[in-house]
Amino acid sequence: MAETPGPPGSRGTPRILLLTGKGGVGKSTLAAGTAALAAARGARTLVLSTDAAHSLADAYGVPVGPDPTEVAPDLHVQQVDAQLRFEQSWAEIQRYLLSLLDVVGVDRVAAEELTVLPGAEEVLALLELRLHARSGEWDTIVVDCAPTAETLRLLALPEALGWYMQRIFPTQRKVMRALKPVLTRAAGVPLPTETVFDALERLHRELDEVRALLTGPQASVRIVLTPEKVVLAEARRSWTTLSLFGYRVDGVVANRIFPTGGADAWRTAWTQAQAAVLAEVEASFAGLPLWRSVYRAAEPVGASALADLAADVYGDDDPLAPPTGTGPYSVQMGETGGDGPATATVSLVLPLVERRDVGLARNGDELVVTVGSYRRLLTLPTGLARHRIAGARIEGGRLQVRFEEKVT
Question: pTM for this structure?
């Protein structure tokens, strides 16, 4: 007997796939094609963009509005209405900031520009993603991300805000509540009300849910690149940094590859240069799927042409298969018996780095991991409160930090 489909949402958390890469590598086209292929195979699919350029409407060749727009059977596209989501999530905080700037004489128009949340459109698109993931209407959500640097800052935001909300915010709120009457008279400037604190808590809670979704077992990031040395260098750094913040990278798409055969001297030189870089791509991302997309005779526009493009790129692979393997972060407690001190190992996926590239420090109940200009604060289990860092190494693309109980 055929299985009866369940109600919307009965399939649980949708498959969430984020595509990112250096600006101009064709990630919007690949995102649009991946979504079109998923829909053509029967998955209820939504594709939305955190990129302010909003190229998805151009890719599908149809106008797209602030609500999900159906462009093909089972395929919807949305251009997030940043102003509406801004009013819902940031307006209360902005009103308070405007009142402060008004007291010190800042022009109203300039003040409004100063109080806009940096990267607001990208952040609010993530909040929209949260709503869609919870709705139960979709099997697959594909996100066309902003260029790499903006994406990395964006994906680091929920954890950074979480640190502030857990460590500083509760104390700050209590102090403000107790001293507000005195400070208001003494300072002559308005202090935040409870509604402002409530708005910050709500924003933190929503972004925390976004992070839980994007680091969960149904979500992954896919890196799009072109076979050029500069682009490859950025893609390598992206894999390292995404892993540092706990996001799974499930594959790489090499785009705009020149087809071989029948070439003149100019194109032969290009194909040889690309072949050399592609060999570096394979070595750099060993262990990850590498899909290739060649230049086509015509630009793919429309759901059907984009689905055909994606089918050629992924071949027999399932482009929406959930990521496999262990999570990017784990803690393994060692044996507690015997005469020696108890041990534990903290493991974090950290590809393409050597031990000398990683900075480690213990700060209370946190492990501070620094790679280049990026830093992550990992909250350690309470069971490691009496442990110290005893050593660290990079093994198999993972940072292994060994902890040893302090002997008193």
Answer: 0.81
